[in-house]
Design a protein that fits this description.
mainly alpha, about 300 residues
Amino acid sequence: MIERTPVFDAIVQVLLVLSFVALLLPFWVVLVAASHDFHTVNQVPMPLLPGRHLFENLATAWEKGNFSRVMVNSLIVAIAVTAGKIALAAISAFAIVYFDFRLKKLAFWAIFITLMLPLEVRIVPTYSVAADVLAPFEAILNLTGLSVDLPQWSLLNSYSGLVLPLVATATGTFLYRQFFMTVPDELAEAARMDGSGPLRFFWDILLPLSRANMIALATIMFVFAWNQYLWPLLIITDQANFATATMQLQKVVPNGVWGEPPVWNTAMAANLIVLFPPVLVTLLLQRWFVRGLISAEK
């Protein structure tokens, strides 16, 4: 155990304050830039105190970026991805912990090793499958000698294409597995003696116990899904209907056209609009998030 001394406590407090300032400084710059008018924000150096044009710039950015539509799209995608990740992670971890089958450990490590394969690494094969979901099955059937022409099923320009490739999560499976392994075996034995089947034990006992873990995972995955930029930009060509909030920022950020002055106050206001939902979710679920990561409810 580390011995607590006044000097050590002071050093830790100073480091925490410096870390907080370093984390808060970019947000402060964005807030200040979003609160000034065009001429003030382009001054060198830019003022370090907020101005009086914040709501005016927010209204301009909201209208210029058409955020009334794209924010709804982002909410649909983020909520669907979060719900899918939680459900799939809980079910897969439940199968790995409470069922005995061959290659059980291999199945877990096959899931866990996908942590080293983020979406950016497998972007080409993922796009290929999303463009024609049934193409791999058709290729397998052709290898077996069965010549079958399956219809083309594309996920491009759709909510399913935005959601389904992001649903699988090794992180969530690992978190659920670690929690389920801490649940006493006597609880499963008692449920079995009472005539409870696997699904009832999972739904009535394990899920309520893992509420804190579920909310912690939901916080992480909501922010992850909301901040997705590369995948929506790749598969969405119909931006009039399926563009997300992060994609829409390119409509507001200065494009560097010669002779066109950069409207950074509007761009920073648009950043505040896009930042608001994940920050709000994190603040509202902060207590549960911390509890889910450092404690176990049993």
